[in-house]
Amino acid sequence: MDIAQTKRKENIAEYILYLWQIEDLLRALRFDEASIDAALVAPRGFSESKSMLFRSWYVEMGNLLRREGKTEKGHLEHTLHLIADMQDLANRISKLAVGADYRREYEKIAPLLPELRQKMEGQEVGDIELCFRALYASMLYRMKGEHSELSDEIVKTISPVIAELARVYRGVEEGTIELKDE
Fold first, then answer.
1. Which of 9, 113, 161, 175 is deepest in the core (most CB within 10 A)?
2. How far, in whole angstroms, is CA 158 from its chain's centroid?
3. Under 8 Å between Cβ of 25 and 62
4. How many angstroms separate the CA atoms of 96 and 180, rounded?
């Protein structure tokens, strides 16, 4: 919860990936409160009141996954809406001066997108969601010790695109970047 709040303020992309990781952890723990407590809350050594707060945050995340029918797979609508917002931002800045760095980085991944899309097995998603899925899959492979040169190359190529988009997203949220024709 504290990590999620910090990531949400500082980097929207890291926040989304973190929440996806929490979703998978909750699934692995079968949404069981005792398991959640033992694996995610107790090791942090919080006071009882703070432990209760964190436990309830994890349980509520699990409840959201249940309500949205995503107990086996899939991502919370909240994160998908954020990705849609980022896709909208990407579309918008692709035509603005403020998007010059983004466009430069995006051009590097454009040739990879058809191959990545093919690996999605027919799922229709936008380029930004596709990038997030590739980054998350690569992260999971690394955690399993199964990463490859292709995976490393994908991360090295996609990360700068998402990082630049996240930077602009934060600037727009904070009011330090204006999206206007120049």
1. 161
2. 13
3. no
4. 7
Distance CA 158, CA 98 (A): 19
10 Å CB burial of residue 162 (0-12, 13-18, 19+) is: buried
Length of the chain as a residue count: 182
On whether the pTM is more than 0.85, the answer is yes
Q: Which residue has the tokens 């504290």?
A: 2
CA distance to 36, 90, 118, 119, 151, per residue, from 114 (Å): 39, 18, 6, 9, 16
The candidate with the shortest Cα–Cα distance to 62, out of 34, 24, 14, is 24
Helix extents (H) in the chain: 2-10, 12-28, 33-36, 48-67, 77-93, 100-109, 113-119, 127-143, 149-174
The DSSP output letter for 162 is H
State residue 62's pLDDT score. 97
